Amino acid sequence: MTLFSRPSLSSLRAWSKRALRDFAAFGRALVGAALDLVYPPPLLCGLCRGPASLSLEVALCTACLERLVPITSRCDLCGRAMARPRAKRGARALCHQCRTAPPALDYARAYASYQGYMRALIHSLKYQGELWIAQGLGELIAWMVAVDPGFQGVQLIVPVPLHPQRERERGFNQAAAIARVAGSLLGVPVVEAVVRTRETMPQTSLSWQERLRNLRGVFDVPSPRPVQGRGVLIVDDVYTTGATASGVALALKRAGSRRVCGAFAASSSLERDFLDAEARGV
Asked: CB-hemisphere CA count at 13 Å for 270?
């Protein structure tokens, strides 16, 4: 009685073909890795996929950075662009909203104004699925957080959540994609601690007060332990009225977070985009 049958000639031939194919693939991978060491592939810009500039602190190209509009004059609390900061000597310069109804965030900043090239990039990410743009936006947020002392004490990054239905339709959450890049670069863990408990109507056509009503009671922290007593950084693509970020911050503070900041790729100018529109009845 034999324990093992002798393999047939055809099975031996098939096995040898597979072995040769696997060996050839391994050889090609080995040669490719060796060539990458000698001739490293070019670093690509996280926004346009062209060659990145090696002289910059972020993996982006000079052309893309020059097309963005960095915020240089801003509200000291929410970071929104302000044309003429109004503050007495020694006092904080606050935008109209932060003077009258401050957000639940303790500190917030955005890299660029939500206009022109930045607006086009965010639309391409969210509505055309060009996910590599999240890499570039995450690079900008990580750099901004690293150099700004206002973000000291951040221990955890929490992306602004989408409702599960909307995330299934889109295929991804752009805030989470950006947050993962920023977290990896900063060495800070990313936890999707906040959830949306119900779907809401689209916010783009709503005023600030309407957005606040639309988002009332929407956010929750099902498992508070990861955020309790910790400094949390909320990450999202755009800060518009601040209603969404405030809703997330309130949920985190109810769950026990010690301090909640916000970092955004872009923000709108409240005076330009909302107050003027409301005055015109838009």
From this structure: 23
